[in-house]
Inverse folding.
């Protein structure tokens, strides 16, 4: 059972809550309880993709820079994913609070991100949406790569060597040219995104801000960027950025090779992996502005973790996450029978946890849907 204690954040298709186990399986840990709503044609696909990737990571790698996955199940036909709880503060919050980073400070974060990418790419998984908002801080200040709902498994998600259009995803500002042009997806796509992110953390925006989605895509397709005050950067950093931002993905460096660059010359990679280096900032130093203006402990808000749908009186949440009609889902090929088939094997339970029961702070506990059917 879980006790839902507060709302942490809102995603594109989801609400994320803090939850604690109660009952015979209770422990001292808090968890991130992500309730996904079918408010978009992309939500079912993204939920399945995230669960698939998280389960693969849990089975195959052990890294402090990748999230730990515990449970997945359905509530009223909608997915829930339970992972370890992090601070809720991101590298974007570091940037917003402290401005541009020094090369030394940025090197700490980029090194930890590289360690995450090396592990990820060893499984032929491409994140595809690497950006400061998706680099979350632990309470200790070390990073965890998050948000795998757009990630791509190069082994599982190809059909006779072809990649379907829906797999080409990400944020245009950080997107590699070959992804923006829907040419191919390789692990080098994340290296491009890492280069753009590094440049932005140290020098500011490298692409003109545009309100036109088409213009943003065009800039990504052309590999268009401009680094301010490039000549003031160290030679080692310029070489690193050039290696990341090589237009031809076949000539672009890979994550493991980047660790050997001069920019990281004085870094002990074992110290990085073992979390021995002191983080530049702690999450408690960061002011945080929630994405939605609601009381995170309001019982009516907490009830949304288990609700069949979001009521209209929850205006701040309803306007973004209200479920689209089944008729609309049908038009996208997601009939109720199709959804049932897609999510037939969605439930997952990590071996160290045995309970899939939920508990609302104010209401009765409920069971996962497959248990209710037995």
């Amino acid at each position: 059972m879980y006790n839902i204690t507060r709302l942490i954040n809102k995603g594109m298709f989801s609400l994320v809550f803090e939850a604690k186990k109660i009952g015979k399986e209770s422990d001292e840990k808090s968890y991130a309880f992500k309730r996904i709503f079918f408010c978009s044609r992309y939500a079912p696909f993204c939920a399945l993709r995230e669960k698939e990737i998280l389960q693969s990571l849990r089975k195959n790698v052990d890294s402090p820079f990748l999230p730990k996955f515990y449970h997945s199940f359905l509530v009223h036909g909608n997915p829930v994913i339970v992972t370890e709880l992090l601070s809720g503060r991101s590298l974007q919050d570091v940037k917003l609070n402290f401005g541009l980073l020094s090369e030394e400070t940025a090197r700490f974060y980029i090194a930890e991100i590289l360690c995450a990418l090396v592990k990820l790419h060893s499984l032929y998984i491409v994140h595809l949406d690497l950006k400061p908002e998706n680099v979350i801080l632990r309470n200790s200040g070390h990073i965890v790569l998050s948000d795998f709902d757009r990630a791509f498994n190069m082994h599982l998600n190809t059909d006779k060597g072809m990649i379907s259009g829906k797999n080409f995803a990400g944020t245009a500002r950080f997107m590699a040219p070959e992804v923006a042009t829907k040419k191919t997806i390789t692990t080098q796509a994340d290296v491009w995104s890492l280069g753009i992110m590094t440049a932005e953390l140290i020098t500011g925006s490298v692409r003109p801000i545009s309100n036109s989605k088409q213009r943003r895509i065009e800039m990504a397709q052309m590999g268009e960027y401009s680094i301010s005050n490039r000549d003031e950067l160290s030679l080692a950093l310029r070489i690193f950025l050039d290696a990341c931002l090589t237009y031809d993905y076949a000539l672009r460096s890979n994550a493991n090779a980047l660790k050997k660059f001069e920019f990281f010359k004085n870094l002990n990679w074992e110290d990085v992996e073992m979390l021995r280096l002191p983080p530049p900032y702690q999450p408690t130093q960061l002011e945080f502005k929630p994405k939605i203006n609601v009381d995170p402990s309001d019982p009516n808000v907490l009830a949304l973790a288990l609700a069949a749908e979001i009521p209209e009186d929850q205006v701040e949440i309803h306007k973004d996450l209200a479920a689209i009609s089944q008729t609309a889902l049908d038009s996208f090929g997601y009939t109720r029978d199709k959804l049932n088939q897609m999510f037939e094997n969605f439930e997952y339970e990590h071996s160290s946890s045995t309970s899939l029961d939920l508990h609302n702070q104010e209401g009765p506990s409920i069971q996962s849907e497959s248990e209710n059917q037995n």
Notes: The two ends are 18 Å apart (CA to CA).
